[in-house]
Amino acid sequence: MRVLLINANLRHDLFAAAPIGLCFVASAAKAAGHEVRVLDLCFVRTPFNKIQSFCRSFAPDVVGLSVRNIDNVNMLHPVSYVRDARSIADWIRQCTDAPLVVGGSGASLLPRELLATLKADYIVVSDGEASFVELLDSLSKSDHAPKIPGVGYQENGSFVMRPPLLGAFPVARPQVDSWIDFSGYNNLGAGYSIQSYRGCSHRCIYCLYPSKLQGNTIRRRDPKEVVDEIEEVLFRLRPKSFEFVDSLFNEPIDHCISVLEEIVRRPWQAIFSATSLSPKKIDKRFLSLLWRAGFRSFHVSPESASPDMIAEYGKPFCYDDVRRAAEAIAESSFKVLWFFMIGGPGENARTLQETLDFCAAHLRNEGKRCTQVANVMLGVRLYPETQLWEIAQRQGCVSPRSDPLEQLWYLSPELDIGRTIRQLVKAALSMPEIISGMDERFMRFSHVMSAAARLVGLKSGYWSLIFHANRWLRRSLLPLVFDTQKIIDSVELQLSAHRPVDICMND
Ligand code: B12
């Protein structure tokens, strides 16, 4: 079959992300004997024209659309990507009658809702390779109601889907640069995405990784194969850096160490980064291995530095792991972006202050070789089928009729909004290392930052420039940015907008 795969992610800033998932699917479909084209809309100025010309020249039998993000998960600067995805789906409909199949992390998170809003024919949840190929096989035999695990569709007005069956890590490499033009991403500072395993066995109360995104069993990729892919790309493309996009790069730790040791054994050198590390087992020895392998930056996601909140979120580590990680990092030369999430069940002024005090005690850059930035986000995004959703439902924050395609938030009832914002603003004004949801507005200056990063020869962790910009702007502009009353109003609006009571009132 002729298969056209389209990347609907239009975000091109410091957090640009090449569509590795779509490329995995493209490689799998090609390996199964299909004729495949990929259209990456990320840097396209006139998406409709491009879709039209692809549909005319290629005449696809099936169109696959990758929807990565539903929204930006940011309460202080909320952006929804659903409208973009809807426009793209409509344009595809205008250009071809081919069945429309939607996949991607957005599709996995909210399949029922996304299928309906995009008016797609099928939606693929979790890994796309095997199920999409099976779907193509069914469609080629004109079976329009295939009972394939992980493939959802509407039947007699209701959504039907069998749970996905997740097999071993796929054999076909994503070959990202053979499907899309990687140079746009490279220029913005994105690393070449590499995945070393799939799955997550943790049970964090707010998260859908194990249940929806990648399943709860760890499916490792042979470390030699991981590094063979890196080696092949390094010599073919010479990307500025490689970026591990595993849910938690350093778990399982033995697997991570095997990958790092395999890199160290090779005769070449490359720059690496990882988009999420657990604070557990980040010690001097591990950091030294990371450094020898070529890592210069990474993200670490404790989500809180309050012992109570770490336990409350169901994190698989404790406060001492977070502190030990911070102490080891403080003696290194890495660039590290920390993620904290404020407002889960039980969060109060004291637990919030514990996280802010931790930042002040451990993440200050003065006098250190490392550069650290703490991304402190307010609110926890609510998704159905998580434990947090149930808690929120019991507390009346959401109801079965709430629309999860909207950014729905949990914010602990023990937090006073005015006081919380004042606490956060005070911390952000006193520490340029702290960035908050408000700072995402500056992402629009990404191109300037990327150019600056290229000028100073930075190869990864472009976001570390945010710290320098922050330090520079702090005394002049930031007090204007942190208009406390405006932030309070916006949070109150966010929280009240989707309360079930409003939904009832609108009926
Ligand atoms: C790594 C990562 C990042 C990195 C990306 C770096 C890079 N080089 O790519 C960074 C830190 C930059 C980042 C940024 C952001 N991220 Co992010 N990120 C991730 C993460 C952890 C992994 C993504 C990934 O690469 N997966 C590996 C690939 C292989 O898997 P995949 O994309 O899911 O693809 C598979 C399937 O989905 C499917 N599939 C994919 N496309 C298609 C198409 C078809 C037709 C079919 C059939 C199947 C299919 O098959 C694929 C292979 O099996 C995910 C969470 C997760 N575990 O998925 C969050 C995640 C996607 N990110 C998220 C968010 C919110 C963001 C940001 C918006 C945050 C922000 N405020 O800026 C930005 C957006 C950036 C952008 N350009 O889009 C959210 C999205 C949630 C939502 N509500 O929309 C997620 C789910 C995390 C979360 N739980 O909050 N992110």
Kindly describe this structure:
It is a single chain. The protein contains 22 helices and 18 strands. The radius of gyration is 23 Å and the shape is globular. Helix content is 42%, strand content 16%. It has a seven-stranded mixed beta sheet, with helices on both faces. Strands 8-11-12-13-14-15-18 form a seven-stranded parallel beta sheet. With 507 residues, the chain is α/β, with parallel strands linked by helices. α1 (20-31) packs across α6 (129-140), α2 (47-58) packs parallel to α3 and α10 (223-237) crosses α11 (253-265). The structure holds cobalamin (B12). Cobalamin is lined by residues 5, 9, 11, 15-17, 20-22, 24-25, 64-66, 68-74, 101, 103-106, 108-109, 124, 127-129, 132, 190-191, 193, 195, 209, 213-214, 243, 245, 247, 275-276, 440.
Give a short overview:
With 507 residues, this protein is an alpha/beta fold. It has helices at residues 20-31, 47-58, 82-95, 105-109, 111-118, 129-140, 176-179, 183-188, 209-213, 223-237, 253-265, 284-293, 307-312, 319-330, 349-362, 387-394, 417-430, 446-455, 464-473, 478-481, 484-497, 500-506; strands spanning 2-7, 35-40, 62-66, 100-103, 122-124, 151-155, 158-161, 192-194, 197-198, 219-220, 242-244, 272-277, 295-303, 335-342, 371-378, 380-381, 409-410, 434-436. It starts with a strand and ends with a helix.
